[in-house]
Amino acid sequence: MTAHPPGSHVVVVGAGLSGIATALGAALRGRSVTVFESADLVGGAAAYSGGQVWVGANHVARREGIEDDSPELTERYVRGIAHAAPEALDPQAMAYWLAEAPAAMRYWEEVGAIRWTVIPGLADYHAEADGALGAGRYLTNEVFDGRALGNWRGRLRVSPYFPVGTTYAEMFRTGRSVNRDAEQGPAGSRAGEAQAFGRTRAGSDADRAVTGGPDPLTFGTGVVASFLARALREESLEILPSHPVTELLRDDAGRVIGARAQGPHGPVERHGPVVLATSSYDWNPELVEELLGLGPDDFGSVAPDSLRGDGITLARSAGGAVARIPPTSVPMLPGWESGQGGFAYGPEFARPHAFIVDRTGRRFCNDSYWVDIVAKALDPKDPHLPFFLVWDERHHRKYGLGTVPPGADYPQGTVTSAPTLRALGDALGIDGVQLERTAEVFNTHAEQGEDPFYDRGTLDYVLRFYGDAAHRPNPVLGPVAEPPFHGLRLRFLGTGIGSSGVRTDETGHVLDTHGRTVPGLYAVGSCAALTAAGSGYNSGFALGRGLTLAYSVARQLGAADS
């Protein structure tokens, strides 16, 4: 067993964005740091994401001439969208996050971890909420050259869901399309790394060896790469992939004093305070059932398959508590089985010529907006599971499905097709007669670009991020009328943001079931419950809060022998 002497050392469990940031911050403040990562690749769920970092009243927006925001507006917005379950919101944690986030993002830029830019013209989810803005709160990285990672480039996860190498501005002009050159494999696998909703410009190892050209990295992959490159410059910081942590070490008083991992060559121990940064619980069926109430027929994940709730398990072993956010407020996307051993999702559910129904054949929500889909489908008083995506041949011809090109055959066993909607309904276990009626009503209004029943097509964020900009009169509305018709049963897909998680105080200390601090133990990122936002969510909250807690915890670890 390899040991490491105690003293000024810090142990971080998880090499996703928040874990890497915490390690970097601690190293810059004089600590030596070990990062244990269970997978052979680093970056975690953040590397698969869109790299959206939501920060109110930030310095980047001001630098780019966007002056509309303020701390007061930011707090009003977060409070305003957390109304579904007010008891889930920790006001102290919210106030701390919102107050510290601008300073944290400035700090990460000042120490060279990233160069921020504002995602252009991207509005807050809840445009109707008090304090919402049309632009300025979403940050991401300026294009990062992956060559700066050297040999670590091959250990970086590359997003299978975004056109890495393309900027948001370019994607908004051209739309999210599918990388037809790649094959999709199981989520978290090397084959699955190739899948992308958009052609990736990030070069392969072979391409870079031949051309020696730039390796532009954007979206979540680029954000993680930028932090990773900066962390690698710190001699006091080691990152150990393929080292899952099996045990937290505690002294006789119950204080956490280190961690034991299982490395490729045997057990490895490091001593010092421990920071849990293991992300969420997507691939742990027992925790999914406990925290979301969903079984295997209704849940899957497009996050790396290394996200198994290890942080929750480790925290509980040391007496840590779990905080629960209602499942109706957890960020999940409508998706499907890929037919190749994993799961897939894409913007197709929000594209024209499609809608979502339950088994009665009726629509029940704004089916272009995952927030409403989750809230309505999982409403304990009026649930709508199972639920189904239905589309017509125009949708097939124009958009395809996931990695399936427009007009191409769907993988065997994934999609059901029929000459009429009634026949499609019967084949899927939906009321076919009612499905025809639903389509008739939907089509009448979709032709005009309207949805008077569920407001599909009214949210700026959805129109810009998911819609077909070339389709008129509304980027997410079109009739479902051209045979043959197609459909599949949907399931909710986790993306590594479970919302529920380890209970912490506002500064990242893990708390026990009595609300007391577990000495020597911290949690950051999506491992820590998102009580700072409660039942409200906006894209970018997870990464924004994660980097803020990383900044806070690193500052505490650098200030004292924690």
Can you walk through the features of this model?
It contains 16 helices and 23 strands. The chain is α+β, with helices and mostly antiparallel strands and 562 residues long. Strands 13, 15, 16, 17, 18, 19 and 20 form a seven-stranded mixed beta sheet that branches. Strands 8-2-1-12-23-22 form a six-stranded mixed beta sheet, with helices on both faces. The chain has a three-stranded antiparallel beta sheet with strand order 3-5-4. Strand 10 and strand 11 (266-271) form a beta hairpin. The two termini are 25 Å apart.
What fraction of the residues are assigned to beta strands by DSSP?
15-25%
Number of helices: 16
**Mean pLDDT over all positions:** 92
Q: How is the biggest beta sheet arranged?
A: 7 strands, mixed
Helix content: 25-40%
* Total number of strands: 23
The N- and C-terminal alpha carbons lie at a distance of 25 Å
Taking pLDDT < 50 over at least 5 consecutive residues as the criterion, the unreliable ranges are: 1-6, 178-200
- The coarse overall form would be globular
Secondary-structure-derived class? alpha+beta
What is the rounded Rg? 23 Å
